[in-house]
């Protein structure tokens, strides 16, 4: 039986016109059918992969006090450490500890008429006792950004758009976010929800997983395992790309099941998104694709906005109520928060 989640080799893009054409077809098919695929041929070496996984393991091995010194609740930009059980998906605790890192930029001065999402821009929090973590994660950000941009150009071509159709939404100030995540084994959690069922909010997610299982995607209403394949990244479509393609491409629901007792799992999701000041365009698809669009799957509990900053702020406030209470109580009190 063919794999449900296929493996695509990005280097086929550079192997001549005919290979490129079949690659784009395979890419579009995978992103439309299951919304998840493994990516090989991305140019990131096994040594670079090991290096960022190692740095992440060293972070989680730090004393709890060192990690709590950079707790996310101290950051109005939702950056920093969250202990296991501290993040919610659909109101229920996720059993994973994680460090959230965004783009390193200065905060935007606040004042009347400045939109609330501008508060999301600002610095990261880095652990004082592990100085090598910052260069390791910033290097990973740069590599993942380059792969994500190559993929986005390929997606544009595969939808019969010009290769730079998506440039305006990331050019100059690409916006992305990453996490390093550790899922503890079952004996130390209260539940088997590593992370609850959800869709990703950005354009594309590039996920690096270590060699422990746990990731599952919803395919035809059953859970399909996306077990680790060494050397690959797992790519999935986010809600913004689903929105731009009017539902032609699928932002698939996925979750992580807690590893068995005694095991732990490390993963590094990289969420490539759009500039916070961007508005998501609706692509004009050629007739044969347009007739196959499904419209973005709308969740009445979670309306999607074409304004990127508003979308991002909404999902951050939902996921991290402690940060919302500490730093955004003015918005929550006036009902101005888009939650
Ligand atoms: O850890 C993983 O494998 C996936 C994590 C995930 O889906 C997320 O953080 O959005
Ligand atoms: Fe996800």
From TrEMBL:
Q: Where is the Fe2OG dioxygenase domain?
A: 174-274
Keyword terms? Iron, Metal-binding, Oxidoreductase
Molecular-function GO terms, alphabetical: metal ion binding; oxidoreductase activity
Q: What is this protein called?
A: 2OG-Fe(II) oxygenase
The reply to whether Iron figures as a keyword in the UniProt entry is yes
**Species annotation:** Mesorhizobium metallidurans STM 2683
- Gene3D superfamilies cross-referenced by the UniProt entry: B-lactam Antibiotic, Isopenicillin N Synthase, Chain
Q: Name one Pfam family in it.
A: DIOX_N
Similarity field: Belongs to the iron/ascorbate-dependent oxidoreductase family.
- Give yes or no: UniProt keyword Oxidoreductase: yes
Residues annotated as signal peptide: none
